[in-house]
Write a structure and sequence with these properties.
The chain is an alpha+beta fold. 31% of the residues lie in helices and 29% in strands. Strands 1-2-3-4 form a four-stranded antiparallel sheet. A hairpin with a 6-residue loop joins β7 and β8. The structure holds zinc ion.
Length: 176
């Protein structure tokens, strides 16, 4: 059975002294584990009057590899639970790989629109709406038939702008 360390740490309090391992033990005397507000584990390192903090996940990965990580190496939680600091759940990602993972987690943007011709409510990907620069002044209709009708309307510039500005009703973010 895998027990998350987190719960026992919370029971013991917020400051747990740990025995530092290589490479940290070479440069620091003591390390204290602190649980922050987001329930994440932070390691406070001390040597005489010097102090530094690092995430516990970063510390674990460094100890695992027996070397310090460079600033381009990002320690990722495979299951996306940033409180689940066990080595099996950690992997090194480059900044680019991490950005891709983060954007996948953030999910897709779906836009809710109203058709100016038939007043139907419909949904489109953000890239197909006037929220992107390439379609900035384009009124989006629900169907080809309505788009065709739209072209036949002789709107004034003002009317056109009003329709354009009320075309988008709401932006939805959908995550996995
Ligand atoms: Zn329509």
């Amino acid at each position: 059975m895998m027990v998350k360390l987190q719960s026992s740490f919370l029971l013991l309090g917020v400051n747990i002294k740990i025995n530092l391992e290589i490479p940290y033990s070479l440069d620091w005397d003591t390390g204290y584990l602190i649980i922050n507000k987001e329930n994440r584990k932070i390691l406070l390192l001390k040597k005489s009057n010097k102090r530094m903090t690092t995430s516990f996940s970063r510390y674990l990965m460094s100890v695992h590899l027996k070397r310090y990580l460079n600033k381009h190496e990002h320690v990722d939680h495979i299951d996306n639970d940033k409180t689940n600091d066990v080595i099996e759940n950690l992997q090194i990602l480059t900044q680019k790989e991490n950005n891709i993972k983060e954007s996948k987690k953030r999910g897709k943007t779906v836009v809710e629109l109203i058709c100016p011709i038939c007043e139907n409510i419909f949904f489109r990907r953000k890239g197909l709406t006037n929220l992107v620069a390439s379609k900035k002044s384009q009124i989006i209709c629900c169907s080809k038939i309505c788009s065709f009708e739209l072209k036949k309307q002789n709107y004034t510039i003002e009317e056109r702008n009003i329709i354009l500005n009320s075309n988008v009703i709401k932006i939805h973010f959908i995550t996995e």
